[in-house]
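DM from R.C. (forwarded with permission)

"hey, sorry to bug you on a friday — could you get me a structure for this? deadline for the figure draft is monday and I only need the backbone to look sensible"
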Amino acid sequence: MTRLKYIMAALLMCLLLGAGRTNAQWTVIDPSNIAQSIVNNSKSLVQESQTATHMVKSFQETVKIYEQGKKYYDALRSVNNLVRDARKVQQTVLMLGDISETYVTNFRKMLTDPNFTSSELSAIAAGYTRLLEEANGVLGELKNVVNITTMSMTDKDRMDIVDRCYKEMSRFRNLTAYYTNKNISVSYLRAKKKADTQRVVNLYGKGAQRYW
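My reply, with the result:
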């Protein structure tokens, strides 16, 4: 095993076993499983929820999964003193957590936003779900870098994949932020017609105003 592959294998093992600093209950957490569980619950929400009230209730399970996963991501964030190549792997995984956080945090607010209909909320959730699902696929490719079937790869080949996954995950994180801001801007424009923009500002925060 090359030095680079050894470093990456050690880091990914650390990631998949709970970042090495979490307590025993987190030793079996895999970030791809966290994301996939959120995706599965979100798909169920989109398919089965007919009213905003039912959607809120269904989304609570998604929030629960995210909050459990957040403990994993927080622990991973505390891992320091990594070599440059290993840190890029770490950051790629953390960006998947950022995408999940953007979805859960903002969609929870949107569920209380009177400027969206139930059908629109369902469509918004479907969009978030697709973005998270695609991003999780990038993580799957990253994990394959240290798979036994890639033993013949050179360090350059391996780092090329890491770099590509990092850039792709960054693209999905930016897309998720853009998607969020566009949806919030719809709410703001509707509120503006009703002279009720302060409600939107209070709900989503002043930081989002630069997109309106």
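R.C.: lifesaver. The CA atoms of residues 201 and 209 lie 7 Å apart.
me: no worries. The mean pLDDT is 83.
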